[in-house]
Amino acid sequence: MLTSRLLRSRTGSAAVAGAATVLLAGAGLLAATPAQAAPRPCPGAGQGDPARCAQVTGIDPGSALVMRTAPNYGATPVARWGNGQWLEVNCWTTGDPDADGNGYRYWMKVSTGSSSGYVNDWYLDTGGPSTWKPLIHQC
User: Fold this and answer.
1) Which of 11, 18, 107, 127 has the most CB atoms around it within 10 Å of its CB?
2) Which of 119 and 30 is assigned the larger pLDDT?
């Protein structure tokens, strides 16, 4: 398992608009390009660092993405993350379908500087299995 290179989240909020994610960063809006909808080098990673990261997206205001000890909603909560949080993606597996009822069963084992656990990939800007399977190994 790779050691996390993240210290803290970048603040901001995200919303899904069609295929693009719009991030509120300071006073300006930045639209994510399709190339950004995939695991990418982690913020602050040096050249040749193999770590891949994604951002939390699509979480309702006042809610949080719960990181758990296993890829199911009955597993013990580890941490809570809001839109815009950077998470290092370590590997993928399958588990319970997403909480919004889309039937999406892919979960990522993720980490930050302070915790690690599983989150449903539906709530990350990874671009989906055809995009991340060549980059992220199965747990």
Assistant:
1) 107
2) 119
Identify the residue whose tokens are 């909603």.
Answer: 73
Other CB atoms within a 10 A radius of the CB of residue 72 amount to: 13
**How many whole angstroms separate alpha carbon 38 and alpha carbon 53?**
8
* Residue-range domains of the chain with CATH: 13-132 (2.30.30.40)
Residue pair 81/87 in contact (Cβ under 8 Å)? The answer is yes
pLDDT at 45 over 70: yes
Query: DSSP readout, the chain?
Result: -PPP---SPPP-EEEEETTEEEEEETTEEEEPPGGGSS-EEPTTPPTT---EEEEB--PPTT--EEEESSSSTTSPEEEEE-TT-EEEEEEEEE-SPPTTSS---EEEEEE-SS-EEEEEGGGB-S--HHHHTTTS-B-
| Residue among 107, 62, 102 nearest 80 (CA) | 62
